[in-house]
Amino acid sequence: MSMEDAQKVPDVVEDVYEGRATGVEVEDPGQEENLIQRPWNPEQIRVSTRSFSLRNILDLIDEKSLELAPDFQRGLVWRPDQKSLLVESLLLQIPLPAFYFAEDSDSAFRVVDGLQRLSTLHAFVRGASHGFTLTGLDHLHDLQGARFADLPVPFQRRINNTQLIVNVIDPSTPREVTYEIFKRINTGGTPLNAQEIRHCMSRPRSRDILKRMTHTEAFDTATGGRLKGHIRMNDREMALRFSAFWLRGLDAYHAHPVMETFLMETTELLDDPKEVPDDRVAELEAAFEQAMVNARLVFGEHAFRKWPRGAEWRSPINRALFETWSIALAGHGADDLSRRRTDIVRSARDRMTEDIAYLESITSSTADRRRVDYRFTAAAEDAEAGR
């Protein structure tokens, strides 16, 4: 790469979580419009405060009336001593911070804030193999190594009868307002990212679809295995972005060019079999798998990564490149792409080296409508190179 070319290519910064590289480039979506109208209409925000016994909440979990967002890996990684200290707090009758639930129209609940705490308590009281053992306690040293069944009956009763304060978001609260509340009040050590929030708010159907899309050999191969079971759910976000543009197109994004809203609405569509029937889901999954196969065929280990001329290192995966190139390649046949591969790669790498507007569109203010348009148009043009 020449000195002039090197000056044109923006720095690539890989996202890091808990000291580990995630394999995904940091994205700067820019300043999006507000998801909801401001100032808020107070009548839109309906939150009531209720008191539940822990026994009641554990019953709701077992009855599937309170959803703990399965597959949410990062929320369930407390150390044994952290789990034990939470249980000790109940035994010492120390009040826990309030929880937040969102109530659905069918009177079921999902956890907005408190997923780690509830998952821990459910595992201790009703978990498989009689739950985990207590360790690293600060005060109740006689209970070291005890499981719930080993506790004296008064202590078991104390845990089950513990009253938890829960703020419940009424189902009449608009979805985008609930999303905003979710963003504001989650109190974990590391705030939830947008996809983690969408996952916690979604229903099993969309979660199952995105999981199937990202648990294939084609996806693992195209992404170099870096997104498999991603701890920040970047794998599901990539599949959701493809789904959003494949199902709805650019016109739908133009109608309300806010990426978070666009992806949240797509999640709701995937959750509704009337909006996206099973046969349409099958077409979506087949198109996604074909896109993954084609991306690997054309770009090899550099698929969905910045790859300017002269650069042979493998950059982290870029979200904007993923959404545009997966869509651009989904409808092509393997024989056609194999014949034109050299031309496509040359065209794409030239653009990543010389086209400053394109580099900006995949690097900064990536949610801007004009930049979204530009990169989709560019990928579509490059995918036709060599014809």
Structure report:
- The chain has 387 residues and is of the alpha/beta class.
- It has 2 domains: 200 residues, no CATH class; 150 residues, no CATH class.
- It contains 16 helices and 7 strands.
- A 5-stranded mixed beta sheet has the order 3-7-5-6-4, sandwiched between helices. It has a two-stranded antiparallel sheet with strand order 1-2.
- A hairpin with a 2-residue loop joins strand 1 and strand 2.
- Helix 8 packs across helix 10.
- The radius of gyration is 24 Å and the shape is elongated.
- The N terminus is likely disordered.
- It comes from Streptomyces massasporeus.
- How many DSSP H or I helices? 16
Globally, the shape reads: elongated
- State Rg: 24 Å
Q: Strand pairing plus helix content: what structural class?
A: alpha/beta
What's the domain count?
2
Query: Cα distance, first to last residue?
Result: 27 Å
Biggest beta-sheet profile: 5 strands, mixed
Instruction: Report the helical percentage.
Output: 40-55%
- Total strand count, please? 7
On the 0 to 100 scale, the average pLDDT is: 86
Beta-strand percentage?
5-15%
Strand order of the largest sheet: 3-7-5-6-4
Uncertain segments are 1-9
What letter string, H or E per element, gives the SSE order? HEEEHEHEEHHEHHHHHHHHHHH
